[in-house]
Amino acid sequence: MSCPYSSDPTNTRAMEDSIHTDFKDDMSYGDYLNLNQILSAQTPLSAEHDEMLFIIIHQSSELWLKLAGHELSSAITNIQNDEFGQAFKVISRVKQIFNQLTQSWNILSTLTPVDYLKFRDALGHSSGFQSFGYRKLEFLLGNKNSDLMAVHKSNQTTYDELNTILNAPSLYDEVIKVLHKKGLGINQGMLERDFSESYRSDQSVLDAWLKVYRNSDQYFELYELAENLVDIEDAFQQWRFKHMYTVQRIIGNKMGTGGSSGVNFLKKALDISFFPELLELRTHL
């Protein structure tokens, strides 16, 4: 019996005459995306089947991190130029990128402890802690720590770019400048602080946000911006937690390959907030 939903009894899709097939002198899909280079970049160091999974998960995560960094850099420029509509769009995209990254841990969690141990020694001291993309992202969001620069010294280009971001205002620093421009009483010291240091909660910033939230109709653009930042914080923390739990599921409390304490080190990141006043203000409303 033929399928009532199919008009083609052969169950095939005919090649259309208009489809291009000759790419000898034309750019193809693979050419545009450099697929030969990308798809040949997976070089397992062992003969173990699951090492390919491990490599591809981390390589694809680095691509998403690169995109998130690209978008956050754009968001900073948008906020500097008072282009809030564009900033909202970009920040919303970053949130979805974090959601995608969180989902990737579900795939990696199919790697069992026994199978991971079969090739773990081949990793040497390589570790996600050395990820340039992740470090750039945290610096852009305001979690600055100059001590962490040490692991990037072997690559001068990477080190120089991170050092520039380390010493520049973060996304939240730029938002605080907007609060100041709107006359919301920001402490001058917050505008002139050492941006290479990690952000710490400030009473004047908390008071400014409380005014925004208590008068959300008057300051709706800032109110919406704040909630967009909370969306990023929420999505990023979920990614951090899923990362920590996946590592715990696979290696327990073993030390990380990069020399950290492993799960215990990852747990400490869960206590770090990029935008602390935006969470604290909920208690005072």
Describe this entry's structure for a reader.
The structure is a single chain. The chain is mainly alpha-helical and 285 residues long. Helices cover 58% and strands 0% of the residues. The protein is built from 13 helices and no strands. It has helices spanning 29-33, 35-39, 51-80, 84-108, 113-117, 132-141, 156-166, 171-181, 188-191, 203-214, 220-251, 263-269, 276-284. The N and C termini lie far apart (66 Å). 22% of the residues are buried. The mean pLDDT is 94.
Provide the fold topology:
Layout: H1 29-33, H2 35-39, H3 51-80, H4 84-108, H5 113-117, H6 132-141, H7 156-166, H8 171-181, H9 188-191, H10 203-214, H11 220-251, H12 263-269, H13 276-284
Helix pairs in contact: 3-4, 3-6, 3-8, 4-11, 6-7, 10-13, 11-12
Radius of gyration, Cα only, in angstroms? Answer: 23 Å
> How large a portion of the residues is in β-strands, by DSSP E?
under 5%
Q: Characterize the biggest β-sheet.
A: none
The span between the termini is 66 Å
Report the helical percentage: 55-70%
- Extended strand count: 0
Tally of alpha and pi helices: 13
Tell me, rounded to a whole number, the average pLDDT. 94
- Regions with little confidence, pLDDT below 50 for 5+ residues: none
Q: Class by helix and strand content? A: mainly alpha
Overall, the morphology is globular
Order of helices and strands: HHHHHHHHHHHHH
Key features of this structure:
285 residues; mainly alpha; 13 helices; 58% helix; 0% strand
Outline of this structure?
The chain has 13 helices and no strands. It has 285 residues and is mainly alpha-helical.
